[in-house]
Specification:
With 326 residues, the protein is of the alpha/beta class. The protein is 33% helix and 14% strand. A 6-stranded parallel beta sheet has the order 7-6-8-9-10-11, sandwiched between helices. α1 runs parallel beside α11 and α4 crosses α7. The longest helix is centred in the C-terminal third of the chain and has 19 residues.
């Protein structure tokens, strides 16, 4: 028998954070993402597993934490996400269970992918790659130089919508490419613009990094696309609900947009016959913005440090329901 607390970790966990957690706790590590197909527990299964292990610490990323799970004698629940949407926070709060989370864990990863989407869209990298693979370098008697000429990004203006951790991580990267960077976020006092429409009128590139709320859902509609400069590039590495799909297709079809790069789709799936798949100036990736080992190391460190702070009677840095700490 041991007096050390038992932590059931169902999220990918690695690096120094894992080592620190293992030094203080008995750890059962079984990341959902290491199973093929992926393994997500329903609430009854998860409750039974917690009970069988005698776990008092639960760390997860995608499993639903609600109902019978929160009836277990848990001392802490940690969601390795920026926003712990998989946890029933009101019930956890009512039961006095702190809910930890990891804001900004994937900021650099998503910012890097956004830059990749921008460069690929601006220089039509994926279309050029397809021509090489298909033996069509001199397609229809033309030179690649003729088909793939584009504008350089240096000196162009980028507009970032949403100036949180990801927006800030993107801003300095775009500035490093020589771009003029504008920002809009009604909750950021240091954003360059308080008027979104005014900012869009100056934009050669617009990149979305806002959360989905009632105010932001569908915010990029036909009117907003029309505000952009002709030939502008549209990027969305946040959520598909932020833009109107049909308005985006129309803006690409009539040439108002020069290109687009998307990392999100409705329900994270895009049918092969979707109109977006027919544009060779659109770059599509399947929700991989945060898919780096560094993201996992980041959230592991943040969560482990906050769990240890609680075990030592201290205050965690990232708690979604801090009222339970009193």
């Amino acid at each position: 028998m041991t007096s050390r607390p038992h932590a059931l970790v169902l999220a990918p966990f690695r690096g120094g954070g894992l080592a620190r957690l293992e030094a203080r706790c008995e750890v059962t590590l079984d990341p959902w993402i290491d199973h093929t197909p992926i393994k997500l527990h329903d609430t009854d299964e998860l409750a039974a597993r917690i009970e069988q292990l005698g776990a008092t610490i639960l760390v997860c990323e995608a499993d639903e934490v609600a109902g019978p799970v929160l009836e277990q004698p848990l001392a802490v629940v940690a969601a390795t996400r920026g926003d712990p949407t998989n946890v029933d926070i009101p019930t956890a709060t009512a039961r006095g269970i702190p809910v930890l989370h990891a804001p900004g864990r994937n900021a650099d990863a998503v910012a890097e992918l956004t830059v990749a989407l921008l460069l690929a869209a601006a220089r039509r990298v994926t279309a050029a790659d397809r021509d090489v693979r298909a033996g069509e370098i001199y397609k229809d008697g033309s030179l690649p130089y003729q088909r793939f000429r584009g504008w350089e990004l240096a000196g162009r203006t980028a507009a970032i919508v949403g100036y949180g951790a990801i927006g800030r991580a993107l801003a300095w990267r775009l500035a490093g490419l020589g771009m003029v960077v504008l920002t809009y976020d009604p909750y950021a006092d240091d954003a360059t613009h308080a008027d979104l429409d005014a900012m869009l009128a100056e934009a050669d590139v617009v990149s979305l990094h806002a959360p989905v709320t009632e105010d932001t859902r569908g915010m990029f509609d036909e009117r907003r696309f029309a505000r952009l400069r002709g030939g502008a590039i549209f990027l969305n590495a946040a959520r598909a609900d932020l833009h109107d799909h049909d308005a985006l297709v129309a803006a690409l079809a009539d040439g108002r947009l020069g290109a687009a790069g998307l990392d999100h789709f409705t329900n994270e799936y895009l049918a092969p016959d979707d109109p977006l798949c027919g544009f060779d100036n659109v770059v599509l990736t399947p929700h991989i913005g945060g898919a780096t080992y560094d993201t996992e190391a980041n959230h592991s460190a943040m969560i482990a440090d906050d769990i240890l702070a609680l075990l030592d009677g201290g205050t965690p840095r990232h708690c979604a329901n801090p009222e339970v700490l009193t």
